[in-house]
């Protein structure tokens, strides 16, 4: 499971890039202590220096949702509140590594029409 959230600077309460990066690092630190967390990254858009992305990988959606529900994360992860209002959690369908390609079975509806029903 892959989670990507975009954050536009300046962020309320975090007026500088350094302040935002400090908070984003803290979010990853908090997540790293939760079951199911695999790894995370903070990136900056090459074409728009005011946009940061917080990306993190989880073993499954349940682990991610339980982490978001954790009291300490709700209390301390202020950075997450600045995320753009858009889809952010994605299931991985195909993965490529030096060992080859791995395809995964979707756990959600198989077509857009199924999502509407």
What does it look like?
By secondary structure, the chain is an alpha+beta fold. The protein has a single domain, classed as Alpha-Beta Plaits (2-Layer Sandwich), CATH 3.30.70. The protein is built from 4 helices and 6 strands. The chain has helices at 17-32, 61-69, 71-76, 112-116, and strands at 2-8, 37-44, 51-58, 89-90, 94-97, 100-103. The chain has a 4-stranded antiparallel sheet with strand order 2-3-1-4. A two-stranded antiparallel sheet has the order 5-6. The mean pLDDT is 92.
Number of helices: 4
CATH architecture: 2-Layer Sandwich
Q: Helix and strand succession?
A: EHEEHHEEEH
Q: How far is the N terminus from the C terminus?
A: 24 Å
CATH-defined topology: Alpha-Beta Plaits
Give a short synopsis of this structure:
With 117 residues, the protein is an alpha+beta fold. It contains four helices and six strands, in the order E-H-E-E-H-H-E-E-E-H.
Keywords:
two-stranded antiparallel sheet; 4 helices; 117 residues; globular; alpha+beta
Write the layout of secondary structure elements.
Elements: E1 2-8, H1 17-32, E2 37-44, E3 51-58, H2 61-69, H3 71-76, E4 89-90, E5 94-97, E6 100-103, H4 112-116
Antiparallel strand pairs: 1-3, 1-4, 2-3, 5-6
């Amino acid at each position: 499971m892959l989670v990507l959230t975009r954050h536009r600077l300046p962020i309320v309460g975090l007026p500088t890039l350094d302040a935002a990066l400090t908070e984003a690092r803290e979010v990853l630190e908090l997540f790293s202590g939760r079951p199911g967390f695999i790894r995370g990254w903070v990136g900056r858009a090459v074409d728009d220096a005011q946009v940061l992305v917080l990306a993190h990988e989880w073993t499954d959606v349940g682990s991610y949702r339980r982490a978001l529900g954790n009291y300490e994360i709700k209390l301390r992860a202020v950075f997450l509140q600045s995320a753009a209002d858009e889809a952010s959690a994605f299931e991985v369908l195909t993965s490529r590594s030096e060992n080859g390609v791995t395809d995964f079975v979707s756990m959600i509806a198989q077509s857009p029409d199924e999502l509407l029903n």
